[in-house]
Amino acid sequence: MSKTLIVYYSLFQNTKNVALEISEQTGGTVIELIPEKKYSFDYNTAAKEVRSEISRGYCPKLTSGNKPIEEYETIFIGTPNWFKTVAPPVMSFLRQHNFAGKTVIPFCTHGGGGFGQIEKDIAKECSGASMLPGLAVNGAAQSEDISNWLKTIGFQL
Question: Per its UniProt record, what Gene3D superfamilies does this chain match (predicted)?
C-alpha cells in the first residue's frame, strides 16, 4: 500500500471529522493545517476575513502543515467550501508543495454549495498530479458514505 496523507483545514470541525474518518478507513497520516493567525469563531466575522483573503489571493503563513510530502504517493486534501473555493490555509499548502507524480483526492464540507470551484482550483495548483473524484459533504458525513466513496474511486486498504 502506498503512503497516504490526509491534509485538511477546518474551522468548525466538520472537515476535521471527515479527515479523521478517511484516515481511519485508509490508515493514512493526518496533518491539520493551522494558520499563524487564527480566524474568528464568529461566523460573520470569519466570513469577512476570508472573503477579503480570497479576493486578494492571500495565502496565510502556516504553523502546521509545512512538512515535506515527498514520501507520500496519495494525498487527500480537505477544505471547507469558502465562497466556492478552498480555504486560504489550504491554498497556502497547495502552493508550498510539488504534487507532480502524486495522486490527489479532494474532499470538502459545505452548507449547500457542493464543490463549487474547489476541484478545479486544487487541480490547477497540483499540476502533474493524477486527480481522483472527490467527496463533497453537506454537514456531517457518515462512515458508510466515506466507505462507499473510497470504494467508488478504487481506494481501499
Answer: 3.40.50.360
pTM (global) more than 0.85: yes
CA distance 81 to 56: 17
Question: From residue 34, how far is each of 66, 105, 146 by CA, in Å?
Answer: 10, 20, 24
Are the C-beta atoms of residues 74 and 105 closer than 8 Å to each other? yes
Q: Is 95 left (phi over 0), alpha (psi -120 to 50) or beta?
A: alpha
How do 130-131 and 103-110 pair as beta strands?
A: parallel
pLDDT the model gives residue 52? 86
Q: How far is CA 70 from CA 3, 39, 99, 124, 146, in A?
A: 10, 29, 9, 19, 26
Cell of 24: 481511519
Secondary structure (DSSP) of 113-135: -TTTTHHHHHHHHSTT-EE---E
Count of domains observed in the chain:
1
82 within a domain of the structure (yes/no)? yes
For 132, the domain range is: 4-152
Strands (E), 40-143: 62-64, 74-80, 103-110, 130-131, 135-138
Q: What is the CATH number of the domain that holds 56?
A: 3.40.50.360
Write phi, then psi, for 76 (nearest 5 degrees). Answer: -85, 135
